[in-house]
């Protein structure tokens, strides 16, 4: 079991007039190797929830156990090695002269590795994030927005976390950059069995990526289900300030006018498939 969250409550500015219960009594278990999307409207508690996973925030009530380590324990260093955290706009943290040095930074800080082993790891992490060899000696500031983001993520991956948590990793990326990033993350999940947890406010994005969706609403866990099941109840999602993917609305419309057309489509690929079936009908 990778992560066990039991009755977690987190309160900002506790016992002041500014008191805010950001996460309320959340219980959830995430297994090794899962691809989980945490979805919710802005302010629903997503970031607060995930910041408990590497002990950055501590529970006010309840417990968070990651690979057997209670985040309240003193093993915080061990915990940080297991959980790679990628915050919003991680490229803002890039500062080294070269891409190579930027990817190496966290590794050198956290681990004392022989030079050749470190070098191998750095090159592997770069390749996993789709960064070519030619980029390694460039300044990160010469790169595109999507490339910079991948450098920043490679700088987390290089430490070899078994759990990777990314907060809105596609914010500000164009569709191509977004697709490439999700492809890389899926590949890492598939080949290394890394548990990948993505915080997003977009159902659309998570429909194509996650195999499990946790919906946060006003600090509580409102749904824990598969993408398909989550989108079955569009009205409930809308009541939480979310919406189903655009193609789901389109499918519902088409299902009303085309006999036998499925209304439960959540990805563009499946929509294309179903439309082709209709086009090819005799
Ligand atoms: P999300 O990630 O879903 O947007 P957050 O976890 O950031 O939600 O925020 C949950 C609630 O906690 C919001 O009402 C937010 O205003 C509040 N909050 C978040 N961070 C802080 C903080 N550092 N101090 C006080 N309140 C905060």
Describe the structure.
- The chain has helices at 46-50, 76-82, 99-110, 115-128, 145-157, 175-192, 203-209, 227-232, 234-239, 246-257, 268-279, and strands at residues 3-12, 20-30, 35-40, 61-66, 69-70, 83-86, 163-167, 195-200, 212-217, 220-225.
- It has 2 domains: 3-244, 3-Layer(aba) Sandwich (Rossmann fold); 245-282, no CATH class.
- α3 (99-110) packs across α4.
- With 282 residues, the chain is of the alpha/beta class.
- The protein contains 11 helices and 10 strands.
- The radius of gyration is 20 Å and the shape is globular.
- Strands 6-7-8-3-9-10 form a 6-stranded mixed β-sheet.
- The chain starts with a strand and ends with a helix.
- A hairpin with a 7-residue loop joins β1 and β2.
- Adenosine-5'-diphosphate binds at residues 12-13, 20, 22, 40, 42-48.
